Every structure is written in structure tokens, then in C-alpha cells.
User: Fold this.
Amino acid sequence: MKMATGKVVDGKVVLEGVSLEEGTSVTVLAKDEEGGFDLTPEQEAELLLSIAEADRGETVSAEEVLGKLARRHR
Assistant:
């Protein structure tokens, strides 16, 4: 997983200091008027743990998650 910052220029996200392969899927978080969000110490610890797990490759594919959700809603 990579993390990058950038700006919208002419309707496109332009990253600063990193390049990604064509077709790479990305998630974009945009600041709102409040400029960010607050986490409790517990939420921050959980987020950092989740990022570390992802960095180690301990992830579940989207297909697996969607399959489990589909089976629950039958």
C-alpha cells in the first residue's frame, strides 16, 4: 500500500512525489470545510494496527468480502 498527497488540477488528481501504474485503483479522501477528522486514542491505535497488517499483506480481497456479504443477505 502506498500513501500519497496531491491536488485536483483540471478535474484530475495530480499526485506529488509518487507515480502509480496505469489502471491502479485508488481511494481518495478529501478534506472538508472542517479540515480533517478526530480519532479517539483507541480508534487511532486500531487504524495504525490495520495499516500495519495491510503493509504485511494480511488483507482480504474485495471479492471475498463481497461474497460473504452476499451470502449473509440471501
About this structure: The two ends are 33 Å apart (CA to CA).
